[in-house]
Amino acid sequence: MSDEADLSKAYDVRSWHSVIQEIAHEGGAHGPALIKAAVAVVIRNPFSGRHVADLSPLTKPSAALGAAMGRRARALLGGRDVQSYGKGGIAGVNGEQEHVVACVTTVFGDALREAVGGGEAWISSATKTASAGSTLDIPLAHKDELYIRSHYDAISIAVPDAPRPDELLICVAVASGGRVHARVGGKTLEEFLAETRA
After folding, report:
1. Among 90, 98, 104, 120, fewest CB within 10 Å belongs to which?
2. DSSP H stretches of helix in the chain
3. pLDDT digit string (tens) for 39-80?
4. pTM for the whole thing?
5. Distances (CA, A) of 155 to 50, 140, 173, 181, 190
6. Cα dist. 6→18, 55, 66, 114, 180 in Å?
7. What is the CATH number of domain 3-197?
8. Domain ranges, ordered by start, for the chain
9. For residue 42, what are the β-bridge partners?
10. Under a CB-based contact definition with an 8 Å cutoff, are residues 32 and 177 in contact?
């Protein structure tokens, strides 16, 4: 069974949403464009309006969620390699932040890593509870080395009709590189790559 089929079996999916940004420059010289993309899926929250101790029904099948979202996000980069990634989500107001977190744990993250071409670093994350149309800033960091400062970034996503009170908005983000015109020091991608070759 495909990840998409597994996903549909485990979660009640209402809709998918994508955002792509192509940044040529920010007031400086043009260089290679930075592509950032985010994918969000709206699912029904089975625990909306009630406190439940065991959230494993959201966590256990989340590998299918991570794999499907990772593939969709990677495709939005148009064949470019994924250098950075992030994840997060919003719980509708009848849910809890913990309901979103249950969907994006290590089970989800490991599948996301595989879908975007690997990753050694932990995946930056942001979650909250909010009403439909609220914006989520998904943090980005280099997928193999957290301390590459040029890749500290974010992409924003908002879905006008989600999450409804009994829904969860689950999000992933990827980028083809670091910030355009990054120049405030710290470990560089080139230094990291040299270390890995040594």
Report:
1. 120
2. 3-10, 56-59, 62-76, 97-103, 106-115, 189-197
3. 999 999 999 999 999 999 999 999 999 999 999 999 999 999
4. 0.94
5. 32, 8, 7, 17, 24
6. 21, 18, 11, 17, 38
7. 3.30.1330.110
8. 3-197
9. 15, 169
10. yes
